[in-house]
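Case 233 in the screening queue. Each case pairs one protein sequence with one candidate compound; here the compound is NAI. For every case the pipeline is the same: read the inputs, emit a complex structure as tokens, and attach any notable structural observations.

Predict complex for case 233.
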Amino acid sequence: MKVLVTGGAQGIGLAVCEKLQDEGHQAISADVQEHANGVTLDVTNEESWADVLDVVGPLDGLVNCAGIRTRGLIVDTSYEEFQRHLSVNITGTWLGIRSIFRLQANRELSSDEPTVSVVNIASVNAVIAVPGQAHYVASKAAIVGLTKAAAIEGAPIGVRVNAIAPGAIRTPMTEERLIDPEQVAWLEGRVPVGRVGEASEIASVANFLLSAGASYVTGTTVFADGGWVANGV
Ligand code: NAI
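Case 233 output:
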């Protein structure tokens, strides 16, 4: 499989690239940060997507992992900061899906061909709201809806679209929170498995959703959260 992974310079995206490579697939990391062995992509920019797809060509999979999160109560958040979250987290994901759909729509499909798979990265915050992150919560809830809508439109053109909703995962995004013992203790008490997750534990779910083993799975969001959501939304 040839798979493009956005946000692949670090964190969950990097772990997805490593997992795919370990499994013998070609993973192309794409990130707004310049990084070794990857391509530069700003997911919010249509031209940037076109440039990258011109270079990397047809794909068997796409993992929309690029994302941002800042904190701030609604009263303190600027219009620009709210828009920035929607732009990276939801418009960026939508542009990725549209790129794949356009590539697929131009192909002759045969019935025995494997489907192309898109994996979006949502969050437990799609269903668990927390104060001080309304912009993030809204953008992640939108990914769950977009995933369902895109799965319906993708099915006739041979594209499956699913999402993963991770719980608290140790990455540069969460570093600040996870060096605070109080925050870690709170999470360990709340999450039934009693620990923070590792990026590799999200990568293995992405690998499954990309694989032929998930050929009948589309339009769903898989919660990889140590049981956090099951413990009460
Ligand atoms: P991270 O901050 O470590 O990595 C995010 C990557 O996205 C960075 O490499 C960054 O340069 C890239 N990026 C940001 N804006 C971009 C843009 N405009 N174009 C291209 N790349 C861009 O974050 P992490 O933790 O690896 O998160 C990955 C995804 O997983 C995000 O969508 C995040 O919201 C989601 N997530 C993370 C959780 C966690 O606990 N770490 C929990 C739930 C969801």
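Case 233 observations:
- The mean pLDDT is 96.
- The pocket of NAI is lined by residues 6-7, 9-13, 31-33, 41-44, 65-69, 88, 92, 121, 123, 166, 168-169, 171-174 (CB under 6 Å).
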